[in-house]
Amino acid sequence: MRARSLRSAARTARGQDRRRERLHSWGIDVAVAERFIEVFAALAAHAVAVDTSLSASECETLPLGAVADAATGKQDFELLAGLPDTFADDRDEIAVNVFRLYAYKGGQTSLQLLRLSTEVRRTLTVLAARESVPSPTCGDIFRKADEANLPQ
């Protein structure tokens, strides 16, 4: 998932200490949260791509603002709609299945997903604000992460 690039780039773009404090106050493990942020970003980007009938090769053209809006504006089940039955990466498939479990479990886990969705939105908003182009896309962030040799 190219969402790892978004998360990696976001590490340099936002106050890690404040995020860790928020996660701790919410009772969410930082490592677990980082993976869920990856999944959320990828699911939000996928949802926007499906809504706009983009192919996988066109996903880099997605505006960060639209992906940020989808992260908090769509219900969990809407983010899961239209996903493939299988994934090329087992790690991604497991992450999506865990997301599904959290989404359908309800209660505290749904609250945690809601809180993590705000972290995704915050991250994408900060990344977009730091770009020099007027309407940054996912591709702009991917290129910046590649230039900085951030892990994917």
Structure overview:
With 152 residues, the chain is an all-alpha fold. Helix content is 72%, strand content 0%. The chain has 8 helices and no strands. The protein has helices spanning 3-13, 16-26, 30-51, 64-73, 76-80, 90-105, 107-130, 138-147. Helix 1 (3-13) crosses helix 3 (30-51) and helix 6 (90-105) crosses helix 7 (107-130). The longest helix has 24 residues, at 107-130. The model has no long low-confidence stretch (mean pLDDT 82).
Number of beta strands: 0
Question: Which spans have pLDDT < 50 for at least 5 consecutive residues?
Answer: none
Instruction: Let me know the average pLDDT.
Output: 82
Structural class determined from secondary elements: mainly alpha
The major β-sheet equals: none
Query: What fraction strand?
Result: under 5%
Overall shape: it is: globular
List keywords for this structure.
152 residues
